[in-house]
Amino acid sequence: MKKLAHMLGYLSIFWFVFITKVSTIQAESKAFFVFGDSLVDNGNNNYLATTARADSPPYGIDYPSHRPTGRFSNGLNIPDIISEKMGWEPTLPYLSPELRGKNLAIGANFASAGVGVLNDTGYQFANIIRIYQQLDYFEEYQERLKGQIGKEKARKRVKESLVLITLGGNDFVNNYYLVPYSVRSQQYSLQKYVPFVISEYKKVLQRLYKLGPRRVLVTGTGPLGCVPAELAQHSRRGECAQELMKAASLFNPQLVKMLTKLNNEFGKDVFIAANTNQMHMDFITNPKQFGFRTSKEACCGQGPYNGLGLCTPLSNLCSNRDEYVFWDPFHPTERANRLIVQQILEGSQKYVYPMNLSAIMAMDSRA
What we know:
Oligomer: single chain
Distance between the termini: 45 Å
Radius of gyration: 21 Å
């Protein structure tokens, strides 16, 4: 009987701690806002007349509904997984008619596949939500939120939110290197183009800061020359395309430097740099260590490395997406996204600078 009493006592303590922890997570739930390109778009382009879409099978094959959602993934993308790990409801696309009522307070995803830092990036996709339009929508969102919960509560909700922004890759892949002798490559050498893009990105982040958020997670570009689309066009033996790798190697350190300067200007760690290039390179250089079969071939596609054209119902399709780093010629699988988010949450300063997301959340909870 004594043993039973002790056991019941321990169970009572366990459930008290568990329930308290769950309540704390729910109480500390932040609004989450997402800006950027196809790596984080969760369906806005479904509502636009554009070719940059992921609204047909086999996209979404591993999503809970097993249907395409507009995410450029077999399943969940990075914002989805961050929300899941934080215990938050997933954000809805800003253009979704379901973004109303209680869903407004969760946050919103403004990202649009094809966009870059520069307004002329992705022009071939026609109707996409360019980054300054995304910020205009964020301003519009705040007016809607004020109408629902009041001006002061809305301001506080935005100030205490978490923001994720992913830009830059398209400014190279779908601009500078889109065609031989592109306008931008005639205008700038690569060494001068990168600082130009960084200076324009700084203006975007300054505008975002003025709109209220004080925790902004900024991802760098991945290893642009190692995606299957580039291997299919430029690689003979599976080596990464050197020009695009050079672009990423110039862009990412300059991005971190710019974010550090902004933080110094604002006197606080507003901008957190996520080294997604290194995160990707870890499992591109040693896929088997992370349980992948290949880091060169896309799961869905056609041609060399399944890297040509789009992922469509007629494409080659792998049977086990968890064995592949890349889902389609450009985008990671859900499993690769999960490894990236794990580093964002728990990684050292090699991966997330000046601190990881878990440290941020712990610090903010004590504030």
